[in-house]
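Milestone M4 deliverable, item 7.
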Amino acid sequence: MTYRPPTTQPPRGGLALPRPGKALTGAMVTLLAIWVMFAVGINWGGGGANIFELGVGDTDKVLSGQVWRLFTAPLLHVASGPGSVGHIVTALLGLYFLAPSLEKKWGGAWMLAFVYGSAITGFVLHMLLQLTIPAPYNAALVQPWFGSLSAVHAVAIAWALSFRGQRVLLMFVLPVSSTLLVIFVVGIAVLRLLAADSVPEGLVSAFGAMGFAWLAAGSDPSPLRKLWLKWRLRKLAAQKSGSSTRPPSANVDDDLEENDEDEDEDVGDEPPRGQWLH
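Output delivered:
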């Protein structure tokens, strides 16, 4: 069954608020709970700062063996001082208003994997550029990195690519098209880079996350799905090379559909149709 995105026109008499599913709700509650735990501990409990630091991303420490930092960094947000409330609230609002549509289209598990994977991809790009750009030109990149705002950038791009022609309320007030949303999100990231206006996620993490979003939702099928389909086709062709001389056709999807019935037991872990990152 083809997924139909929700109408962009709010019902008469009020604004239709998004309804996050269980997966997204759980993720948002988890992020908020982690923030509250560290905020209370650091600001009022006299402890927790050392534990917080152990989860923050740091390029040198990750390369020295503390690899867990790459995976804990997306879960942490500024817990004390100016900007701490804005950091977590912006992340939660971005997920709340844009991610529910992706959750309905992809399924909760794939949506969570996308959000987490986009954040990690952004941090990996930050690390690579910090290592490859010589000093002192990489000075703006030499900083701890953590937070999920880069993932919110990715969610915005994925939403715009998945629901072309739809509208969304920018800043929760101004209705803009999916194209204008892309221009706005990318433009903000570029302006921050030019002004060296760093956020906890780092100057360039948003670009890595947005690139991940393009791979996941840039076309139908998505570039990532195309790569997976090509790999699967080569696998099927290799398995049948001894019994069939017909070369694989140029159309990857056609070949796979013809082989689906014969290879069910080999691809039993394939997610249900409709939950791929289209």
